[in-house]
Amino acid sequence: MTGTEPGHLDIAHAKRLRMALTATSDQLFQLILESDFEILKTLLHNPNLSDEHLLALLKRRDLSEDIPKLIHQRRKSNLSHQLVLALVKNPITPGSLVRNLLPILRIFELVDLCFIPGVTPDQRLAAERTIIQRLPATPVGNKITLAHRATSIVVSELLKEGDSRTTVACLNSPRLKEAAVFQLLNGAAATATTISMVARHSRWNQRLNLRLAILKNRLTPAIWFTLWLPQLPTTTINQLLSSRRLSVQQKNLVQSELKKRCAGNIR
Predict the structure, then answer these.
(1) Tens digit of pLDDT for each residue in 106-126?
(2) Triad 253, 257, 259: Cα angle to 5°
């Protein structure tokens, strides 16, 4: 019988499985490099296995999804925060398990998870939803930091709150989309203060779509009508005048601009 025959292979495999069960701490660091998933699953039962071994194992991106599930099952009662992070960050971890673990993470750990290379779309979406759920109870200082660091979806949700203390930070975010600013200007949370913050912001105040949204909001201060109406074509001025959303004062400003144009024959 040669070393390549089935009997020898079975004996050798059995020895390796026994080794996985009885290996010392140092030997385990070598075993976690194994390509045989059966051996990896077996070493999870080794009494010498520590968090350090598991953290090293979870750095691998070539595991089967059974491995994270088994780690969670065996350490469920005393799962360290480091292991929770390692499980959540591994793209192989099943989505259902990730969703169960996300509430354990701190809010900025959730933010970091969104930007980890290799993170799956489902993991990112679940992390964003968890962050958004926590926003009502999040201190203002943390919200400002979130506005600088979080994804576009989270920043958009922050902006929707209409809190003037966080609005500037949101408007400065390179991830903020114009659609989110437009929603703020047309939403119930907009105030004269937040509208003026958008109107003063160099990134947003030159966009015609946003200028019109500002001019159609009855809370918009008169100064923006004074500054912007002379720059608009007469057809747009007429459209503004027909808007039912303007206040009496705002309509007067629009009519005044039209009268000037008629007097000067300006189009």
Answers:
(1) 999 999 999 998 888 888 999
(2) 115
